[in-house]
Amino acid sequence: MTDRTTGSLRVDGATLHYDVRGRGPLLLLIPGGTGGSAAFDGIADALAAEYTVASYDPRGMSRSALDDPEAEQHVSEHADDAFRLLELLSPGAPARVFGASSGAIAALDLLTTYPGRVERLVAHEPPVVEVLPDADEQRALVTRVRDTFRARGLVPAMAVFAAGTRKDGAVPEPQPEIRLPPQAAARAEQTVANLPYFVGRIVPAFMSYAPDVTTLATLPDRLVLAGGRDSDGELPHRAVASLAGLLGTELLPFPGGHIGLTTHPAEFGETLRKALSAPVPAR
């Protein structure tokens, strides 16, 4: 296992906690959903053979506490957090960036706002639903999730969210309880603890984000859009595929589905390694 160091960075409205391992050019990993830095434990060590790998807990998640726990969230703030980390860890040199899900939305805003700081961005299934032909239906979904959360609580809101994001509205069958190793159990417990913040403030803010397609179209050599092989038809995959269509580029297939990072870590990490340095196909 690669040695890692942990640090903290004071930003506007929060204190970010981050982990760094490896040597070489900087690779910033931005987690999505309720994940934090630990979401990348399955791939970071392998990538650290080639890069200085930095991962962090987004503001409001896990160790990165908000000054005001009730503060509304904005994609631009999360993108600025990533920029501040780049300035700290790779001053003056463009860095490679990977973002997953909502983290990929923050990464897209980072790229369009600070294009000179990003050498290559791989964005895996950002749920940029505003680019979809049925964007009005997705806005209604976000409203239902928000209203359900406020009126009935977390579990019913998560059921509405899951039904709206999965293919054909299907909700997975409950799985039998699995006894996890202590480290994995602690990570799962933290993920659950982050759920109210994710549902109440990240989902409404991030799923209303409209990417700057015009600016992204001017950065064809810096952006790789990716989708899971097993998630075709699900809402995040539909959204990133639609964005790829608007930009006239191919969607790079990654192992697994929306959470392939967790279910197929070795294959996912190797695909990411190749995507970070491979030439982007002509558009």
From TrEMBL:
Residues 25-163 form the AB hydrolase-1 domain. Gene3D superfamilies: alpha/beta hydrolase (3.40.50.1820). InterPro entries: AB_hydrolase, AB_hydrolase_1, AB_hydrolase_fold. Signal peptide: none annotated. GO terms for molecular function: triacylglycerol lipase activity. Keywords: Hydrolase. GO terms for biological process: glycerolipid catabolic process. It comes from the Bacteria. It holds the Pfam family Abhydrolase_1. This is Alpha/beta hydrolase.
